[in-house]
Specification:
The chain has 124 residues and is mainly α. It has helices spanning 10-23, 27-40, 59-63, 67-80, 85-104, 111-123, and strands spanning 6-7, 56-57. Helix content is 65%, strand content 3%. It is globular, with a radius of gyration of 14 Å. The chain starts with 5 loop residues before the first strand and ends with a helix. The model has no long low-confidence stretch (mean pLDDT 95).
Length: 124
């Protein structure tokens, strides 16, 4: 099974705009980082917490040339959570993306904050 388009929540769309202004990074970079932050969180996000009133992003835009890597990370996470890949791949991908960006945005005041987060992740 492959990724389908992901629609962010309205809150995440707003957060992405704020981070773009503060950092100059395109939303897909922030989305990828947030996605990975959420995957690292051992709790399972609730997809129903996030409306679908934000931007729709294709897998090619969202994950770029690394789509297969992100797909593998997501399948591994679903296996760890004992969720059926066929049933939950796209629903839980959307949930992780939304949760991750919501967690990321308050930590980003400028581009150097991304650098600090990457340093923290390397030390974990």
């Amino acid at each position: 099974m492959k990724f389908s388009a992901v629609t962010t929540s309205s809150r995440v769309q707003k957060n992405l705009g704020i981070m773009r202004i503060k950092t100059g990074l395109t939303p897909n970079i922030s989305l990828r980082f947030g996605f990975c932050m959420s995957l690292k969180d051992p709790s399972i996000p609730n997809p129903d917490e996030f409306n679908q009133m934000g931007s729709e992003l294709s897998p090619a835009v969202l994950f770029g040339e690394h789509e297969q890597l992100y797909h593998t990370l997501m399948v591994n996470r679903l296996d760890n959570d004992k969720l059926d890949v066929e049933k939950y791949l796209n629903t839980m991908t959307r949930a992780h993306i939304n949760r991750g960006v919501i967690a990321l945005q308050p930590r980003i005041n400028d581009l150097s904050d991304f650098y600090e987060l990457v340093k923290e992740e390397r030390n974990d």
